[in-house]
Write a structure and sequence with these properties.
By secondary structure, the chain is of the alpha/beta class. Helices cover about 25% and strands about 20% of the residues. A 7-stranded mixed beta sheet has the order 3-2-1-4-5-7-6. The radius of gyration is 18 Å and the shape is globular.
Length: about 250
């Protein structure tokens, strides 16, 4: 329930040594984006994260997600990663792009930043990596505590993950964070609908109804058994406004 043993291998994904070695070994392979590219995630980002937001991208790696966001109008993205190799690589690549900044940092201790520093935190696979490392529940709690601390009231933590609610809600749906959580489910890239499917792409842009405990209803059927899950966690507080225009998708 609290670890992802079935989805993990023998690598310690929470270890900087592993990631430094991997980025050195794969340097010639170019950039790599986990799970989904920006074009698939754009409707969700544009709904919840205004382009003027101060954004923290945790576990940025060498992905082009932040670059694509800047091309789409986002103005201020701070990228952090545990790997000094990845960060130095990205600093050189984007040294002439002022909207992108890079810092080497462990997401379990982001004390460099003050409380309430960011309007949004985006996580595409970083919590998943920690869940495959040693002391997974402790690492997850440390990271999520930091995310909550850094978010402004009304801010959004967007978690893109392979983890369904049974393995993610116990970590993110905790009273101490005071997050209101919306869940979306999207098929993996390249997924082909089975014959007879009646769903449309737009259906993935609607929140999935969940139980009181944040679980999927017992009769819910995944069209793609290897779907990706998007948890949009809004930090409740005095600045939260239920009439926020972000509640409507851009058309």
């Amino acid at each position: 329930m609290f670890t992802d043993e079935s989805a993990c291998n023998t690598y310690n994904y929470g270890d900087s040594v592993y990631w430094d070695a991997r980025y050195i070994h794969e340097a010639s392979a170019g950039s790599f984006d986990w799970y989904q590219r920006y074009h698939a995630l754009r409707p969700f980002l544009r709904k919840y994260i205004p382009t003027s937001s101060r954004i923290l991208m945790v576990g940025c790696g060498n992905a082009v997600m932040s670059e694509d966001m800047v091309k789409d109008g986002y103005e201020d993205i701070m990228n952090v990663d545990i790997s000094c190799v990845a960060i130095e690589m990205m600093r050189r690549k984007y040294e002439h792009v002022p909207q992108l900044k890079y810092l080497q940092m462990d997401v379990r201790d982001m004390g460099f930043f003050l409380d309430d520093s960011f309007d949004s935190v985006i996580d595409k696979g970083t919590l998943d990596s920690l869940m495959c490392g040693t002391d997974a529940p402790i690492s997850a709690s440390q990271m999520l505590g930091e995310v909550s601390r850094l978010l402004k009231p009304g801010g959004t933590y967007m978690l893109i993950t392979y983890g369904d609610p049974t393995v993610r809600m116990p970590h993110i749906n905790r009273p101490v964070y005071n997050w209101e959580i919306d869940l979306y489910i999207i098929p993996r890239p390249g997924f082909q609908k089975p014959p007879g499917s009646t769903s449309s792409p737009k259906s993935h842009l609607s929140p999935v109804p969940t139980t009181d405990k944040g679980m999927l209803p017992a009769d819910y059927v995944l069209e793609d058994p290897d779907s990706h899950y998007i948890y949009v966690c809004t930090k409740m507080g005095e600045s939260s406004d239920p009439s926020d225009p972000r509640l409507i998708f851009d058309q």
